[in-house]
What we know:
The chain has five helices and ten strands, in the order H-E-H-E-H-E-E-H-E-E-E-E-E-E-H. It is an alpha+beta fold.
Amino acid sequence: MKKAADKFVNAGIKIKHIDLGGGFHVKYSEKDPNFRIEDVKKELDFCFDGSDYELSFEPGRFLIAEAGILITTIINIKQNGGINYLIVDAGMNTLIRPAMYNSYHKIESINNKSKIQVSYAVAGPICESSDIFLKNIELPKQTIGDILVIRDVGAYGKVMSSNYNTRLLPSEVLVNKDLFGIIYSPNKIEKNIEEDIIPNWL
């Protein structure tokens, strides 16, 4: 970006502002390398030293990815082909990233009472082979009704979600310290049908 800007400046074109975009790293798993925004600052100071234009960024994912979690309930447990499946009430319509491009989101269990560790695959209720959140995850033995937490969904959870397969989106709760409020309540299928299908003149 600096070399491209220099070409314009050297050609006599004044540049007031450069948008360097986003792409800042989010640590989705413990294996991911650590990222320090301070290191980016050092590189920018070195690279753009002496430049007289403003710089800006689009750090949306870096700011909010870790701020969102998806809470889901186990609605069925089954075994198929030697794999232990936890079927949850959230699906690929709620968080499509794992199904779309095999992205990793850490999953934690609330019920950790059992001393027995089981290897699970966490799957949604949609009848699609891609409706899998995570495979080969070790968790304490789970039961129907237990709650799982899918982490780091703040950046791409809601914006990529849909009502696919008539699956209504979950409620959204905003938490600030010891305060909370519902910022999105799901629609009802009956209400959508009435508003979208039945003409006003009937």
